[in-house]
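Incident log, structure service

09:12 report received: a user says their structure output differs between two submissions of the same chain.
09:20 pulled the input from the user's history:
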Amino acid sequence: MTLPLGLGKFQICICSGCGRDATLQVMTTTEDPQYFLGVCGEHEQQALQVKEALERGSSPEELSGVSIQQLFVSPAGRSTKCKYLHWIAPTPTAPPVQKLQKMPKAPTACANWTWEVRPNRWMTLKGESVKLRSLSNQEFISSCIEVRRLNYKRATTATSWIDQLVPPNVLCQYDADKLEVGSSEAYWKLSEFKEEATARGLL
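09:34 re-ran on a clean worker, output below:
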């Protein structure tokens, strides 16, 4: 519960054992937080001493003769006050340690992987010749990207469709020497890849 910064009619004198209604309010000059001490007419001097102690850096718990149940605070940036016991000063905490996420290892083609010249077929990373439709999306898209990268020095209209494919998180790795077959041979294979990409709904 919060209250306006002025003296509230329900505030009680902060001096221990007093219990009288507060008739005036003493405020510290500190701002984080600022303390508000309601006090009766008989204990104004004690309230001023408490104010000075708080401004020197003493905590309310260290002060004798003070009923901290009746002490109010206003944290920095607020235009209201609340009871000290309802406000818990934030404890600085170290930011959580960010664990470095290991990138998944790129799948790599086996040693006997070779370029597949037969129509509508391609060799899997494990060295098995299969129909294009049998390839996983990761292997299929990786092959499209790598074949173009290694056989075309610049982007062409005929291969621009590859830019529409969503690359997998990790591209499959192939032996560059086995993928470099020249733009002419690559063109025919990429034409087959384009038909398969359309059939898969990737374009």
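09:41 both user submissions now match this output. Likely a transient worker issue. Closing.
09:42 reviewer note: The CA atoms of residues 93 and 99 lie 17 Å apart. The mean pLDDT is 88.
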